[in-house]
Amino acid sequence: MVCDFFEMESWETCYIGANCPSKTIIKTIMDKDANVLCLSVTMNHNLPQTKSVIQEISKSFPKTKVMVGGLCFLLNPDLAQDIGAHGWARDAQEGVDMATAWCRESLHE
Prior knowledge:
This protein is mainly alpha-helical and 109 residues long. It has helices at 2-8, 22-32, 47-60, 71-75, 78-82, 92-107; strands at residues 36-40, 65-69, 87-88. The chain is globular.
């Protein structure tokens, strides 16, 4: 659904699905030259892997912003910063708004 919200705002999107291996995420970022990666985490036991993916992305693709969302962050918003995400969104529209602001900022850098 988040992908649909981005598409409605004319973003070029690529939905890679749930439970993707890190290497698939990294390859997609490289192939698509992604500005923003959105990750959703529902269960706490997936947070260590999410943190690892974010760390890898930050090293390999420093211009790619990582946004997180999902139940884990609704219950504990501080987790987003703890795992290295650039931000978190409560819902799809907030995510689109945040990503749009990031892209506007990068144009002025």
